[in-house]
Write a structure and sequence with these properties.
The chain is an alpha/beta fold. Helices cover about 35% and strands about 15% of the residues. It has six helices and six strands; from the N terminus they run βαβαβαβαβαβα.
């Protein structure tokens, strides 16, 4: 049961992942969460994110966004990014739209990697959908003294995960 909360791997950020190595292992698509995974909550894209997505696409990956945000937020984010499909108001962690994203891309789920910053939405949803996932450290503007009950629970889960046999089962996927 606890494995439901565990990602396949943990990484410092979307920028530290070795996408070329992930491609060599057989992944052909990356589904990203948006807020606190690619940019701080509610913020527009950055040149670094635009460059990252272009690089990931140039390796041959299909890039997809799965977000609980509405259409206007996602389209604002994608204003300078092309070739990325998305599902808005995804209802995470329900697996329905994770599976729908895989279906839209026309790939077997074994070739799709999900990347997000929250255990209780992103990782549980990916696990319920049968997708490998990477949990990245959230980026945002949380007060150092108060991170909320969810983030505290996630920290406890991450600590247990790091000492388990399930830790980083995809191997070293960071540059």
């Amino acid at each position: 049961m606890i494995k439901l909360f565990y990602p396949a791997n943990y990484a410092e950020s979307v920028f530290t992942l070795d996408y070329a190595a992930l491609y060599k292992t057989g992944y052909r698509a990356v589904i990203f969460d948006l807020d606190n995974t690619l940019v701080p909550h509610g913020e527009d894209t950055t040149p670094e994110v635009e460059k990252l997505i272009a690089e990931v696409q140039s390796l041959g990956f299909t890039v997809f966004l799965l977000s609980d945000n509405g259409v206007s937020r996602i389209e604002r984010f994608l204003q300078n990014i092309s070739g990325v499909q998305y599902i808005d108001n995804a209802g995470k962690p329900k697996p329905k739209n994770y599976k729908k994203a895989v279906q839209i891309m026309g790939l077997p789920k074994e070739q799709v990697l999900y990347i997000g910053d929250q255990v209780f939405t992103d990782i549980i949803g990916a696990n319920l959908a049968g997708l490998d996932s990477v949990l990245v450290k959230y980026i945002g503007y949380y007060d150092e003294g108060y991170k909320g009950k969810r983030r505290a629970a996630e920290a406890a889960i991450l600590k247990k995960y790091k000492s388990s046999k399930h830790f980083n089962r995809l191997g070293n996927i960071e540059r």
